[in-house]
Amino acid sequence: MSVTLYHNPSCGTSRTVLGLIRDAGIEPNIILYLKTPPTRAELENILAKGKLSARDILRSKEALCKELGLDAPGISDDQILDAIAAHPKLLNRPVVVTPKGAKACRPADVVLELL
Fold first, then answer.
1. What are phi and psi of 110, to 5 degrees?
2. EC number(s) (predicted)?
């Protein structure tokens, strides 16, 4: 099974998700998204695979989210995706993509639905 993990090694939840994937006998394609940010097209692909909205992958607890006004009700998916593409720390980690779909895996055991 092909598994891609958008990973932040300093995040405990992201490390837990990586462990759960490896415990399932899978070595994922790990993308350190803060060093290699996903493009706007890659973000759109994640949304399509997971039938997600941009808010589903937005890290709303990040201070920058509030600073940019992304938590306002009228903000569009396009505006959120533009912000995540420009500021990858706004990606709600970890995001996992498999043939079964895509999800922001919070809490960590959500990843099991994708394996």
1. -60, -30
2. 1.20.4.1
